[in-house]
Amino acid sequence: MKHLTLLLSVVIAVASCTSRPDHPVESDSLPTIVPDYVGVVIPDGIAPLNFYMADDSVDLMDVTVEGARGGSLHVNGDYADFDIDEWHALTRQNRGDSLIVTVCARRDGQWTKYRPFAIYVSNDSLGEWGVTYRLIPPGYEAWGHMGIYQRHLATFEQTPVVDNNGIGGQCVNCHTPNRTSPQQYTFHVRGPQGATVISKDGNVEVLKPRNDALGGGMVYPYWHPSGRYIAYSTNQTHQNFHQRRDRRVEVYDDHADIILYNTERHEIMLDSTLAKREMLENYPAFSPDGRTLFYCVAQRVDSVWKNYQEIRYDICRIAFDPATASFAGQPDTLVHARQMGKSANMPRVSYDGRYLLYTLCDYGCFPVWHPESDLWMMDLQSGEQFPLAAANSSDADSFHNWSLNSRWIVFTTRRDDGLYTSLYIAHVNADGHADKAFRLPQRNPKEYDAEVVCSFNTPDFTSQPVSTDRRQLYKQIMSDDRQGHTLIVR
Length: 490
Prior knowledge:
mainly beta; 7-stranded mixed β-sheet; 36 strands
């Protein structure tokens, strides 16, 4: 009798979990789902776009996905949980077309059938294995458990590249690969065993975290495509705190210069053209051919701690000779943001050399805390500039990078709740305009949104998994050995 009761309980439980819509009420409205995947453009092979209803009174969902070129999926539960292999097969079959999603939701025993919506599968492949990013809990001066992680975009697998538990709880940031390569990357460590770490083709060197002659550390890096050089900025950075919810903290520089590190000769080069006392130079980025350096520049102000709202950056470029590691000529201003009463940051050139992607905000150099921050694009052939309207939101959109095929971007945004930065990916068309972005998929987004309180920072694509020996890397960071270098001032 005990076994029969147990069997009946299981049957009842299964039946209730697989209840199908019975005489649903038709609605002309689209379903309000989290994440908002209505009308997004995705690459085939991306992890399933699982979602749930924003309305907490919904106790059951029934979702059907039908491909315009064939194939279908059906799931039933408290959130849409698609099988990975079946989802991949469906997106592959419908590449260049659409998936039609029909959602039914049950409240108090009554089903509602919503108007179907489309998810578009681009003809442009993503071509990247995954993304790398920093995950950090809330905090400003202090930090807890954090690290640099990598995520396989075809699945939900996340693995650490650097976990700060292995280096005494120190802060790690600014993980930057060379053209999405896992074989060449650099990042910065702050703490008692602080360092600038450079990994190049299996060899890891650890530099001092700052150079007193430069007046700061080596941050905001960007690799020369040859791998021979890395451009950094060296900054004296400060923070102001506010009581406003939308402007909790302001990060600004009192001093900032561009420096160049030669990874082969272990030389730091400081060029007077990019280290003017009266200017703030920041966020360097090389062109794909390695013959131009893009960067941000602003006029310094007096009493910066109270006048930081007057600091506005333009985006400039200057010619670079890789053979002599020298800059030539005078800088050319591309984005005259100050004339617009705005500040332009984080220049990133598409790897095909066609477009310049940047962030525009009201002032300053740290747009991640500015709700008005938007992504903008410049056509380097025509000079036309325009916002990425379909990808932007009403909250901070910033810190972006390109896929190697120049058809996708990854960026951070606070659009979900105004507090934590999430990762979004957007398709970029041949004309430089972006489609509606989609949030990085999670296996159980309902559980993830309720339980995870971390921000995603400094994302970039990676063509393959980063396979650094973490134990050896931790050992090098925690040792007192640091790679020596020569400072060259021109």
